[in-house]
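Q: My labmate handed me this sequence with no annotations at all. I'd like to see what the chain might look like in three dimensions before we decide whether it's worth expressing. Could you predict it?
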Amino acid sequence: MSNFSSGGFFSNLFSSLFGKSDAEADKKRQLKNIAKSLSKSKYNKFYKYGGNEALPSIAKFFYEIYKAIYPAQSMFHQIQNKEILKNLVIDYSTPDNIKEIEESLSEEKIIQMSKQIPLQNLKDQVPQRVSEYADYFNLEKITEVDNLYKQLMGFRDFCTFDYYFFIKKFNKTLKEGSFLNAPAFEKINAEYILDDLKDFMAIAWALPLDADWTNLFKLLKAYKGKEPVQLVVWKKILTRLGSIKSSRTFEMMIKLISANPAITVEPNNLSSNIIEPHLDQLKHQTEETVNKLVQKATSEKTNDISKQLFGESEVMMLPNYNESLNSIFERKGIITFNNCAALSYLKNFLIEVVKKDIREYYDLVIVRGQWESQSLCAPFSDGYNSLLMISDKITVFDKELAEDGPIGIKIKTLLPKTERDNGAKNIISRLVNDANTDAYTYIVESTRNLITMGKIIKSLVDDIAKQKPQIISNWNELSRYSDIPMSEFNVSLYKKIYLFTSLIKTCLVQQEITHEQE
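A: Here is what I predict for the chain of 518 residues:
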């Protein structure tokens, strides 16, 4: 018995033969119904379906709008930057006492403040003023300002629509911006205005037609000294637009002109969130200004301490753990060497002070001194030996980063591959991070040892001043082995250690600020 189904076969056959023609017929029926509806509209003089013609009445409609908004169009053509319009709305919406707070947060004003108050006070006061300014913009105020900006952007988009280009299609002799005599318009093929009509609808139907526009026109008058369009004229335009929108005249025209009953045009989405980005920008800008001032002050302080500690001669940076590769790392999105200055200062201090002055002091005070107790002698000795070991470790550490060192070779080999290989980038970042960690460990451990040694020397400064010393009993004997009096030696060494720890602290603060800015 056959499995052939006559019903299924003929159904598929009729569908394949007549389905397409049925869809076309349905489309034509829809278009005719749309044309019939348009013919009953009060704006039926805009378009003739029979010849697919745009009629002079629609050109006249656009010409009247063009004539009314032309001064506003000229104004907006002179304002190409949206930031100007944003600032205009915010400034108009902000009372004078709040404006004064914002003005005090400009870069110029903050720099002036930095000359009048300590930087620490500045770091506290600036965020307080930012917070005070931001507090004014509660939810209600933010909504009010954002809505005003939304109106302004809608008005700008409407006024800057190319009316002249649209109207000139109906009268080729029309001159831009000339309104002395009412021009005569001719009917044209409606396809010539299809895209223009879509663009106009997207702009016009995005306008809040029922909104109160009084505040916006006060803003424009405050900005220009007069209304670029009279409010009463604008309200008439809105009324006409509302009438056309409710009649769906343009929607029907677009469907008929394009011969597509399903086509739709979505209104533009007007961006209106301006206060929150404004507050974020103000916060970022003030933080950046304060950080620059702090960084400048710390840099000056670093240079000053360095000169006191090492003299006028330039402090030598480490040959390999330095900032020479940082610009390349930054460009490739790799973390940078970030303890270079502090580690270089440490290495210089270990060479110039620890291996010379402190070594001489150690040989005198620790080796020859007669200590009443080992409670201070042993920690000093441990700290000194630890510093010598760290000095050797830094030398090895830096050599490993050289181009021919084990880590340096890896970095040099992997760098060219980072553009196409994230794995290479990750390996370099890990190597750099490990180097930074090691450098930081050397810095912290050395500084901790020096602080301990500095405290012991401070005790010895006090001890030698006593008539009967209680820590070391043979100060007079030790002085015979020193080129300078031991009291001066104690003070000089304590000062150098104090300067160095201050220098390292300043370097780390500066590094922290740089990291925050990145």
